[in-house]
Amino acid sequence: MVRYLLISFLLITALGFSQEAVFNPKYPIAKFPKVKEGRIVNYVYEFTNSGDAPLEFYSYEVECTCTKVELPTQPTQPGQKGRISVSFDTHGKSYYQDRIIYLQTNTERKKEKLRLKVYVDPKTVENPTPKTDKN
After folding, report:
1. What is the four-CA torsion angle of 65, 67, 73, 74, rounded to 10 degrees?
2. For the whole model, what pTM was predicted?
């Protein structure tokens, strides 16, 4: 009897260790239409934890300070949905922008990725009319 209890305990413990969170974003790539330089582009990524353990976000990495990210502060339970807010400041940026957001998580991969794509129409620089000296 003790033998069966020990085997049961070991199997339950082994199953508990195999649990993992799974980050499943609804749309991992956000694409925007053309925007004028100087605007701030905002997007909310919706995701589901389709794993069997709570999903936690530890930190994020972006290329520059022009991209800000708000991660959930509490773990997302299995089967629950969550949101990650991202804002991208286009000031000083022009043409095609492809921003990658790396998320440090407790998933099997440890590092998950989101992308934000936008075409930034640069500000036009007005050429002043040249001054001429009239004598």
Report:
1. -140
2. 0.76
